[in-house]
Specification:
heterodimer; A: 416 residues; mainly alpha; 0% strand; disordered C terminus; B: 430 residues; 3-stranded mixed beta sheet; two-stranded antiparallel sheet; 5 strands
């Protein structure tokens, strides 16, 4: 295929170095905008915490006689909530020694691992102009495949983990490739197909968990699997005091792989070409249908890694709720991360921190559900650049901002 | 980004000239034959020889009809033969290169469902009224959502946010009705809640040109986050004052509600269900028989042409989507006031996505979308019935069936669906 023809609009100017590219990215508002969106998200969250806090409501009753009470109650509520979030996700300041104090950070990394892996998967689909809402189903299928190998096959250390991991990734990839195949063959829209496949995967795996294929004999008719063999479990990274396991290293590896795949490989180049303009890509000799299959398969493979992470990173069996919203959160992670490797990694860490910090907020009497609103607001503003520019009176972006490499959204023209 | 297969739109005139030497399409006759054989052989000839009795009326009904008791095998053989006759008709039509009409497909599906019920219920009693009322109740929110989806897509805005609209409507209706002690206020609040989500969707996708599917997904996440937060921060501890709205009363229509079966199913319902009976034909009428509807469809099919004849494309889209939001919000009220009363977190449970599937399964037609929603509702209720009847069919596989049907339909294996041409594409005036 003729690389020069398609690559021309996508390439950065020849004299730009990586450093200046980064600088322009910052100046043109890409990173500033993301940070502002995060800020707005937390401000909205703070407003909600204040508005529902009992002390604040009580103080509001006598606002005109003692206004300072209201302000101090409001500040107190917010600092309690976000303070607990910090202590639960980054560093426990009440801990006696560093080893205990840093444990929340390792929890953040543990929660972030599947979010990063799944987020990369969804991000990949965005870059090809596809919209993969099927994370939940793909994760479940990946989990089931990995789980099956982990407790039905009995292999030596190392090999067992490897085989189970690849089985999970392979299973999810097949499930995802089915979407690409249907799109390429029949033109069925991937959004509706992936939604349906989520439900089908859910029913199918629940059914399998009631049969000897996946069921634990001790579960007594409930859909639950046996625990994975010790040989297949992801080993702990920092010893028995921390729950952080090898899955995080896999997430880092997946991030590097994603970067190489999308920015350096021929396949990734084809993916991006189709994402930018499928008609032009077809004219340039790219088999667009095959790219759909391959892209959905690869997208689901990353999501499958998240499923593997969920299943082999635990010592007991799992239930159909193993997804725990990761398949859906991955969409927001991918959007926040601008579909780039580094961005998704950081977005995954942020969302992982929110998951890790939730219990600490709950203990302080602040509903951790507020973090769901924070996440929603963040991605809403990320999705609408003109809005955040209008609020903070940022300048209009230069042309460099619109280089497709950094675009979060799938191409609008992808369907026609 | 349209939610439909990207087929080139062939004009009707062109289609008739091509029809003479077009290849014959055998998909529907083959599918008909397979289903007829399943009923005839699996349910009938090698089926259950026990008796099944169809209970037409409940004990409390004014006019009673005695149960119809037949052997399950004979019942299924008779139905199977009728289905085989329909299949033959389909073969004849396909041979003549004629389209198989919807009024042939729908009865065929209904016959299959009856045969299935007769087979599963063998050796027991089939409470027909329970099956139908339950299906109707379970599908009501989905019907509202699907109507909103149809209107939105017809005007060219893909609405993934139906889930969020249902959730918002459910939440606001429960809370408002609890505070004001007025169920009517609750209904109004639900509609406004749905419209609010629609307004954000319209503003972002029409004014800021953000990808409609992305806004929809984000709005769902936001609606989920907001309702979850208020549920756990406020409603959970004050459920008596904030989350105890009561339910809408059943309003039996005099005389009509005494008709056996039909009376109980259609004329002894809550106001939300009656609203659905009114809205489905109304939406169809507005879309196809009024000037506003013509404009809506024009904007959805060819915004440039609509603009050329003086229709304000973006304004039409904006207000139509907002009105659709009112309907979706009412679906949310059907989840709370029209059913269990109180709001429960994440109570929409994916029904908005099912509504989206119904839009496509129903080919952007209000009637067919409603039919698709009823299919989903029936399958959910059938699962309950099959569990009670002690059926050997695994319940998880029954639960899976409607999704599988939708997938097969969307993949174009049972005829292609053509979406409004401009769905998902923002219109920017040159």
């Amino acid at each position: 295929m003729s690389q020069a023809v398609v690559d021309a609009p996508a390439s950065t100017p020849p004299n730009s170095t990586r450093g200046s590219e980064l600088l322009r990215e910052i100046l043109s508002g890409g990173i500033v905008r993301t940070l502002l969106a995060v800020l707005v998200g937390f401000v909205v969250g703070a407003v909600l915490i204040i508005a529902t806090n009992a002390d604040v409501i009580a103080a509001a009753g006598y606002f005109f006689s003692r206004p300072a009470d209201l302000i101090s109650a409001a500040l107190n509520a917010v600092s309690t909530g976000y303070g607990a979030l910090f202590r639960g996700s980054i560093y426990d300041t009440s801990a006696l020694d560093f080893a205990t104090g840093i444990r929340p950070l390792t929890e953040t990394l543990r929660f972030a691992s599947p979010l990063i892996a799944a987020g990369l998967g969804i991000a990949l689909s965005f870059r090809v102009g596809l919209f993969n809402i099927g994370g939940g189903g793909q994760l479940l299928i990946g989990a089931a495949f990995a789980g099956f190998v982990s407790f039905h096959w009995h292999l030596p250390y190392g090999l067992h983990l490897l085989v189970a991991g690849f089985a999970g990734i392979f299973g999810a990839a097949l499930w995802g490739a089915l979407v690409g195949f249907l799109k390429a063959r029949t033109g069925a829209h991937e959004v509706i197909v992936t939604i349906m496949l989520n439900y089908i995967a859910g029913s199918l795996i629940t059914f399998a968990m009631r049969t000897p294929v996946l069921q634990d004999k001790a579960a007594g008719g409930n859909p639950k699997t046996p625990p994975p063999d010790v040989t297949a479990q992801l080993p702990l990274l920092l010893g028995p005091g921390y729950a952080l396991h090898l899955g995080f290293i896999f997430a880092i590896g997946a991030t590097i792989l994603y970067w190489w795949l999308m920015e350096r490989s021929t396949v990734g180049y084809r993916f991006r070409a189709v994402g930018l303009n499928p008609d032009a890509a077809r004219t340039a000799g790219i088999n667009v249908g095959w790219v759909f299959v391959l892209a959905m398969g690869s997208s689901a493979a990353f999501v499958g890694l998240a499923g593997v992470n969920q299943v082999l990173g635990r010592v007991d069996g799992f239930t159909p709720s193993i997804d725990s919203g990761i398949g859906f959160d991955a969409i927001t992670v991918a959007l926040l991360g601008g579909s780039t490797a580094g961005g998704v990694f950081l977005a995954g860490l942020l969302f992982g921190a929110m998951k890790a910090g939730s219990p600490a907020m709950q203990i302080q009497g602040i509903s951790p559900e507020v973090l769901g609103v924070v996440q929603g607001v963040i991605v809403l503003f990320i999705a609408a650049p003109p809005l955040i520019r209008a609020i903070f009176r940022l300048p209009k972006p230069s042309l460099a901002r619109i280089t497709p490499r950094r675009r979060a959204r799938p191409s609008r023209k992808a369907q026609r | 980004m349209s939610l439909a297969p990207s087929t080139p739109v062939v004009s009707a005139a062109l289609r008739t000239t091509v029809a003479a030497d077009a290849p014959r399409k055998w998909k529907i006759p083959i599918a008909f034959t397979v289903f007829a054989l399943i009923v005839l052989v699996s349910f009938g000839i090698i089926g259950d020889s026990r008796e099944v009795s169809f209970g037409w009326s409940a004990a409390s009904d004014a006019v009673k009809i005695s149960d119809l008791t037949v052997t399950s095998r004979a019942f299924c053989i008779v139905l199977g033969l009728v289905m085989a006759a329909l299949a033959t008709a389909a073969w004849v039509l396909s041979y003549g290169r004629r389209k198989i009409p919807t009024w042939l497909i729908v009865p065929f599906g209904i016959l299959f469902v009856w045969a299935l019920v007769g087979w599963v219920g063998s050796g027991g009693r089939v409470p027909v009224e329970f099956l139908l009322t339950g299906a109707l109740a379970l599908s009501t929110p989905v019907v509202f959502g699907a109507l909103a989806g149809v209107i939105g897509e017809r005007v060219g805005v893909a609405n993934i946010a139906i889930e969020g609209q249902l959730l918002m409507g459910a939440f606001l209706s429960a809370v408002t009705a609890s505070i004001t002690h007025s169920l009517v206020a609750g209904l109004v609040a639900a509609m406004l809640g749905g419209a609010l989500v629609s307004l954000v969707l319209a503003a972002f996708s029409i004014k800021y040109l953000v990808d409609q599917i992305i806004v929809g997904v984000v709005l769902n996440a936001l609606a989920l986050g907001i309702t979850n937060f208020f549920y756990s921060a406020l409603l959970n501890n004050n459920s008596a004052t904030l989350n105890y709205p009561g339910t809408l009363p059943f309003l039996p229509i005099p005389f009509l509600s005494d008709i056996p079966i039909i009376g109980g199913v259609f004329f002894d319902q809550r106001i939300t269900t009656y609203a659905m009976f009114v809205l489905v034909p109304l939406v169809w009428f507005v879309l196809y028989k009024t000037r506003w509807g013509l404009r809506i469809r024009a904007v959805g099919e060819h915004p440039l042409a609509a603009d050329t004849v003086g229709i304000n494309v973006n304004r039409t889209r904006f207000w139509t989507v907002t009105v659709a939001g009112l309907i979706a919000g009412l679906g949310g009220a059907a989840l709370t006031l029209g059913s269990v009363g109180a709001f429960v977190r994440e109570m929409s449970a994916g029904q908005g996505y099912i509504a989206l599937a119904c839009v496509i399964l129903g080919r952007w037609n209000p009637w067919l979308a409603t039919l698709a929603a009823l299919l989903f509702g029936f399958s959910r209720n059938f699962r309950i019935f099959a569990g009670q009847a002690g059926s050997t069919i695994p319940p998880d596989l029954i639960a899976m069936t409607p999704y599988l049907v939708t997938l097969i339909a969307v993949a174009g294996l049972v005829g292609r669906a053509v979406a409004p041409a401009a769905v998902g594409k923002p219109y920017v005036k040159a």
